[in-house]
Amino acid sequence: MGRIRPVTETHPAYDFLIYKDGDYYKIQDAKNGSIEKTGSFNEAMSRVLVNGNVILIKKGEYEITDTVQITRNDIILLGEGKATKLIYDWTPEFNVHRPMIEIKASSGNISDVHLKNLYFYGAGGYGGSNGINQAICFQNAYRCSVEGCYFENMGGHGACEFYGCYRCSVRFNHFLDGILFNAVYFYAGYGQHLVMGNQLKTQPDGGAAGVTIYACPDCSIIGNKVHDGVMVFNIEPGAHRTLIIGNAAYNIRKDGICINAEDCIVADNILYNINTIGWADRHAINIGPDTKRVKVHHNVINTAGARGINIMSGAELTTVEFNTILNTTLEPIKDEGTNSKIRFNNGFVTENSGEVTIPAGSSYVDVTHGLDITPSLKKIVLTPLDDLGGRSIWVSDANSTTFRINLSSVDSIDHTIGWSYRE
């Protein structure tokens, strides 16, 4: 392959260009056009990372024989999309953490490292939960990003993994077949991460979620598509104030969206065909026992192997409103939490009204309320539709199907009573 000139009309601006020429990996310096020959991709990367800030890897297949270490701030690593294929090319060791690329300072924090338009192809298989066959690992990283990349055949824990990080983003990537554990995994740190616009597929027989966040507050998961995997999103303790908005998920083997943190919002998501395995404890949206003030609204759930929305015992102050829930094997919504507010959902009736007659000679009438909950007596509103002659009315004996309207004394004529109920 001849000399490649750094022509800005055809390539983004860069400091170094890496390309494969036969058995060699060559480096072109954009400043003077000089070309250096190396014997491996790892060697080429080691050289350019000494003082290069923008590195372009041309299309081709590049074998990574050991972890590429990025230890400096302000690095941009660019590829040419799926045509720039980085291949995991060493024998995995069980539970040994060796990602393809690791972003970690020699000491302290690292910041402003960005990986764009690269294709990571792993060794596959099961390597344990410590990140074997992992594509990228960020540690103590600030303001870093992964954008427009492809991931396939990653057998480890997190194709993109972030430890102790702050304000990082994963945007517009494609997670393809063979992602055995979590596609995107955030663990500890100051949080404020963004996961947006990704196509997320995880291996159906693995233990993976599209995104898992643990002990990272104030994160946002927006506009992603998750399909043909085990779990959609897993929000663990400490991931408080997570926003999950405008995502779509379908053909999920077990769990949908699981929330185990406080003050989270789950809104405007579409969940279709969740829990295809049909386990009774795997729901489209599950609100866990350690949650407080979670809001679930304006979601569409269609076809779930258990419940549409499940609120577990220990959850407090959950609000569930304006959702549409269709075709669930168990109840559309089940609430075992404390002080929950459930109202205005399609497919789960918490509001109803009607008219009934207390016949002459009777002091009560039992009303079939048509609600999917046992109504609170305090929230049943009665309106007499004729003159009761000074008699009083009240409600009692509410259960899952009926409640009773009582009249203080019998009369010789019928009396019509209007009733309404809303949460």
Topology:
Layout: E1 16-21, E2 24-29, E3 35-38, H1 41-48, E4 54-57, E5 60-64, E6 68-70, E7 75-78, E8 84-88, E9 101-103, E10 110-111, E11 113-116, E12 119-121, E13 136-139, E14 141-142, E15 145-147, E16 150-152, E17 160-166, E18 169-171, E19 174-175, E20 184-191, E21 194-196, E22 199-201, E23 209-214, E24 220-222, E25 225-227, E26 231-235, E27 243-245, E28 248-252, E29 255-259, E30 265-267, E31 270-274, E32 285-287, E33 295-297, E34 300-304, E35 309-311, E36 319-321, E37 324-328, E38 333-335, E39 341-343, E40 352-358, E41 364-368, E42 380-384, E43 393-396, E44 402-407, E45 415-421
Parallel strand pairs: 1-4, 4-7, 5-8, 6-9, 7-11, 8-12, 9-13, 10-14, 11-15, 12-16, 13-17, 15-18, 16-19, 17-20, 18-21, 19-22, 20-23, 21-24, 22-25, 23-26, 24-27, 25-28, 26-29, 27-30, 28-31, 29-32, 30-33, 31-34, 32-35, 33-36, 34-37, 35-38, 36-39
Antiparallel strand pairs: 1-2, 2-3, 40-45, 41-44, 42-45, 43-44
